[in-house]
Design a protein that fits this description.
86 residues, 4 helices, 64% helix, globular
Length: 86
């Protein structure tokens, strides 16, 4: 299975997790997904009153320069760890 196929599969599996991950893990999943699908963060950083949008943008921006396939593999690995509870 290729990285992109595993990434697609992990996107379905993450929705089937028995427990909702905490906010930090959700931010990591979001950032890895965005980096794996769109590459480096683009656009303007959300304003100070958009706390959620700002946190999401910052998490994505922190991955700047990460290769798309690397981000996809890290996403797959994280979903795998969440499924096994480790």
């Amino acid at each position: 299975m290729s990285v992109s196929e595993a990434f697609e599969q992990a996107q379905h599996e993450v929705k089937q997790l028995p427990q909702r991950p905490g906010n930090e893990v959700l931010l990591e999943l979001y950032a890895l997904f965005k980096q794996g699908t769109q590459g480096d963060a683009s656009g303007r950083r959300p304003g100070v009153f958009d706390l959620v949008g700002r946190a999401k943008f910052d998490a994505w921006k922190a991955l700047e320069g990460t290769d798309r396939q690397d981000a996809q593999q890290r996403y797959v690995d994280l979903v795998g760890r969440l499924q096994t509870g480790s």
